Amino acid sequence: xxxxLFGVGVGPGDPELVTVKAQRLIEAADVxxxxxxxxxxxxxxxxxxxxxxxxxxEEALTYPVTTEATDSQEAYEELLRxxxxxxxxxxxxxxxxxxxxxxxxxGDPFFYGSYMxxxxxxxxxxxxxxxxxxxxxxxxxxxAGTPLAKRDDLFTVVPGxxxxxxxxxxxxxxxxxxxxxxxxxxxxxxxxxxDAGVAQRAVxxxxxxxxxxxxxxLDEVDGxxxxxxxxxxxxxxxxxxxxxxxxxxxxxxxWGSVRQAPAG
Length: 264
Ligand SMILES: C[S@@+](CC[C@H](N)C(=O)[O-])C[C@H]1O[C@@H](n2cnc3c(N)ncnc32)[C@H](O)[C@@H]1O
Fold this sequence. Notes:
This protein is an alpha/beta fold. It folds into 2 domains: about 5-130, Tetrapyrrole methylase, N-terminal domain (Cobalt-precorrin-4 Transmethylase, domain 1), CATH 3.40.1010.10; about 135-260, 2-Layer Sandwich (Methyltransferase, Cobalt-precorrin-4 Transmethylase, Domain 2). About 35% of the residues lie in helices and about 20% in strands. It has helices spanning about 20-30, 45-50, 75-95, 115-120, 135-145, 165-175, 185-195, 250-260, and strands at about 5-10, 30-35, 55-60, 100-105, 130, 155-160, 175-180, 205, 215, 230-235. The strands form 2 sheets. Strands 3-2-4-1-5 form a 5-stranded parallel sheet, sandwiched between helices. A 5-stranded mixed sheet has the order 6-7-10-8-9, sandwiched between helices. Bound molecules: S-adenosylmethionine.
């Protein structure tokens, strides 16, 4: 009998934000798959590490490209298609051999998660279940201590890869927003936030919930930011009594206290 495929969201980084269901499935799996960059590190594996068994088969699915430039968008798409085809076949071999496979996915699998490309290649062939996870923007808002959206607020999720003008238009039209996929896109995102008049209440959050988490006001961030970061634009209609987004002073104070906290 074929094994089963599980696309498991493991949350934004903190192993305590892995759901009880995800933990149970990870502990029981025969095979653990996870996409990782060529440097070999995986945020998803790190979040799941306390729940892995030493005798499980691990399949590190290494992206052929990350942020490096390719010749063209077409060449990039082609490389990724090949990568997902090949990765799906690696997992299919385990499934055909009767092994249950858990694919770890950072945050939620169906929210910009790369698991979805394996899902579309495998879910029609094998019994499949998807387990939702805590998204990065939820963890970021919790870390910033700021409510994101309330009452009739229109909440918009924007990929930072959009052109500056489109980003600004989206941010202008929203009551609250999150801009994902920073990194090289950051300077255009910061300019768009200024163009849209939301820069003052924007909060930059890097590696939310991980030990390296960092929060800062937009103006304090230089252009060189990692991919695992986002920009929150909390509701302009902050609930009464809420502290509101952290000022740069509060963010630095918070960051200072984290750096002084004992490791572990
Ligand atoms: C491919 S999307 C994955 C989203 C993920 N599936 C989720 O549910 O949050 C990658 C983007 O998510 C954001 N992200 C993921 N984890 C993050 C974290 N721990 N802290 C801040 N941003 C994060 C960043 O904007 C990053 O560029």
